Amino acid sequence: MAQKKQTARKVTGGHSPRVNLAVLQKKKAKAKAASNKPSPKIPANKNSFCVMCRDGGEMWICDEEGCNRVQVKEAGVKFMCVTCHLQKTKKDPKPYFAYFPEGGYDFSQLPFNLATPESMEGYDKKASHLANTLCAYSRVVIFLTTHTDEDRGDLFTGYINKEPVAAKAFEFLQLLLKPLTKIVDGADMIFYVCGSLVTNPQNFNGVKEIAQHWLAQSPTSKASWTTQSSKAFLLPVQQRHSAIILVLWQKEGLVVEKFLWTNKYTKPWGNQLPVQCPQCGTIQKWVAGSAHKTTSCECKYSECGKNMGDGGISLPPKTHSFSIPKNATQLPQGKTELSSWLQITL
Prior knowledge:
Blueprint: H1 21-36, E1 59-61, E2 70-72, H2 82-88, H3 117-134, E3 141-145, E4 155-160, E5 163-167, H4 169-177, H5 181-184, E6 188-192, H6 196-199, H7 201-216, H8 219-223, E7 232-237, E8 243-250, E9 253-263, E10 286-291, E11 294-299, E12 319-323, E13 328-330, E14 339-345
Helix pairs in contact: 4-7
């Protein structure tokens, strides 16, 4: 095939707007000078919500120059956001402690096995040594992570012949916390356990007995009656946006409160909506409407219920209705009006 010659169209004249080249040069010089200046500190009000919890409130800005990410404010704490930390430690990865980028923080792990006398003796020694080490700190937070028996709500305590064993919550917590007495007094305790511990009345009462024992005898908590106890037991119930059980000591005695996360479309008044419509079997977004503290969610599939009744009659679309739990208080909403937390006194 013959090669075709491609040339630009010849132009001998025409019209074009005039530009001032001197002005363009001045603009270019100003832009270059501005690019060499350090980026100004962006005011904290540019970001209205916490980079960690996505909620509002009193904030302070990341200490890194030019970063506008904010965090819920805490007096006397230096803050570096997680993005700035990753950028600074990309070549040399380091642990991220948002509130303590320059030290003053100690993280310790204490495995436990209370299933045999020998393993229990080893735990007592390590726990006592750890308690003596952490006595120098003014604030201590204890996290307990273990499994829970689904039927009885017992807490897993260790292994016998490589098989897991569980015990009642009261007995287990007594043995676990006894060698940590020096730091339990005045510390916050957070339990990451399964929901069966809370739903089983016997074991949940055991947790409350332990909480009352440690909180009531603490001079730290008694001295802070006017504000609220500085000591508390937190029990997150594992699921999406876990419910939280808060056990604390106040002037009137032991107080147990439950916090439920609620979302109009996915978890109305703390109730989890099914992903699949139980009537038509489709996976659709539920259409929600609210009136007088009651939310109704309807399947939006146009064929839901059609010819599904006896004799081939059509049924109305599947609907779930939920009301706010009894004695529940809706806490102030966060970033959107769709989600909030419910507080229930048990």
